[in-house]
Write a structure and sequence with these properties.
alpha/beta; Lyase, Ornithine Decarboxylase, Chain A, domain 1; TIM Barrel; 21 strands
Length: 421
């Protein structure tokens, strides 16, 4: 459930009418609901009630400072995958002991930054990375808590670009080699082995791959403990999928996922970490856009919007489906018509949907892309010198711009023409 609902025939975000925000900030823009973010975080936090745990929000899904602060104030930790995300977490006031550093290619500079600012743990993904972190820690005279991310060779049955738990993927070390690699980690100075880590992919709509992976991690935990490692934490990653098309998808609920965690690793007396991103932020955000033109083509009608693939790249990158709704609720019984919904960017990949049934549309109408709070703003670019679109946060009856639209001058002034030119 989210907080984007029609009221008196107009789409609202919590208690604010979407056209009111559009009039204030201009289109297109991202719009997030604080109540929805809060609700989703709590589903996990309460779902793991009774087990020692920390819900670490995967910041790569949505890294706006206001979103991070809101979740951190509720008690969330953060999962970061770059020095930039680490800096964002610290800037939003997240203490180092609640930041988990993940990612397949951390540089020494990023490691140093995390060790200086404080970090809960570093999730290591390879032997060379392990050696590098050891060197950095020793050079700084500190010891850093680490886990090793294992690759369980489980098919997450999700889109190939976001599947990470098969042996052919670049992530983690094969679970078959885990005991060797843990022995090596334990022998390295500057590292303290404190746990195990796994993350098998994103947008999983079935619990079976999680179950398979978590059972493997449970038995690995027992083996590693028998080998003498102090496995105190089990980081189970993120990846729980959300319903993008409300009508025909019913991914498992967070409560079911949390029950699965209890069943598979609950007996191990370890602190559980999870790293949900999409499930917390995805349905907590929409992208609001305006119809610029309705264009009749040969056998097709196009809705040309003022947002484009640079603003929301998921449809062109992953062929993802986003529900697109009219901000003015269609009258009951109104006849729907098929439209190709596209942006103004100069390539055919700039298509959000083909032959999508929509109420009859006119230039100036507002539409909203649902489920746009995750992997939306964070993946946007300024292709075609289209300014990054603003982000707005609603809480109850108030709203605030949490990232403004840059001006053309701000964009242009980032470039430098060398003196010799
Ligand atoms: C992407 C990622 C996540 C979050 O995935 P979601 O599908 O957004 O929940 C968590 N952990 C790691 C290591 C990731 O790379």
């Amino acid at each position: 459930m989210d907080h984007f609902l029609y009221r008196d025939g107009v789409l609202h975000a919590e208690d604010v009418a979407v056209p009111e925000i559009a009039a204030a900030v201009g289109t297109p823009f991202y719009l997030y609901s604080a109540a929805t973010l809060t609700r989703h975080y709590r589903l996990f936090d309460e779902g793991l009630d009774g087990l020692p745990h920390l819900v670490c929000f995967a910041m790569k899904s949505n890294s706006n400072q206001a979103v991070i602060k809101l979740l951190a104030d509720l008690g969330a930790g953060m999962d970061v995958v770059s020095g930039g995300e680490y800096s964002r977490a610290r800037a939003a006031g997240v203490p180092g002991e609640r930041i988990v550093f993940s990612g397949v290619g951390k540089t020494r500079d990023e490691m140093r930054m995390a060790l200086e600012g404080g970090v809960r743990q570093v999730n290591l993904e390879s032997e060379p990375e392990m050696a590098a972190l050891s060197e950095v820690a020793v050079s700084m005279g500190v010891t850093v808590p680490v886990t090793v991310r294992v690759n369980p060779d489980v098919d997450a049955k999700t889109h190939e670009k976001i599947s990470t738990g098969k042996s052919e993927n670049k992530f983690g070390i094969p679970i078959s080699r885990a005991r060797d690699v843990y022995a090596q980690a334990a022998a390295l100075p500057g590292l303290t082995v404190i746990g195990v880590d796994v993350h098998i992919g994103s947008q999983l709509t079935d619990l079976a791959p999680f179950e398979e992976a978590y059972r493997l991690v449970a038995s690995l935990t027992e083996q590693l403990r028998a080998d003498g490692h102090d496995i105190r934490r089990i980081d189970l990653g993120g990846g729980l999928g959300i319903p993008y098309a409300r009508s025909n998808e019913a991914p498992p609920l967070p409560t079911e996922y949390c029950d699965l965690i209890r069943r598979t690793v609950g007996h191990l007396n370890a602190e559980i970490e999870i790293e949900p991103g999409r499930l917390i932020s995805g349905n907590a955000g929409i992208m609001v856009s305006k119809v610029i033109y309705v264009k009749s083509g040969e056998g097709r009608n196009f809705l040309i919007l003022d947002s484009a693939m640079n603003d929301l790249i998921r449809p062109s990158m992953y062929s993802s489906y986003h529900e697109i709704v009219a901000v003015r609720e269609p009258a009951p019984g109104v006849e729907m018509a098929p439209y190709d919904i596209v942006g103004p960017v100069c390539e055919s990949g700039d298509t959000f949907a083909r032959e999508r049934a929509m109420p009859p549309a006119a230039a100036g109408d507002l539409v909203a892309f649902r489920s746009a709070g995750a992997y939306g703003a964070v993946m946007s670019s300024e292709y075609n010198t289209r300014p990054l679109i603003p982000e707005v946060l609603v809480q109850g009856d108030q709203f605030a711009v949490i990232r403004p639209r840059p001006t053309f001058d701000e964009i242009i002034n980032r470039d430098i023409i060398p003196e010799w030119l």
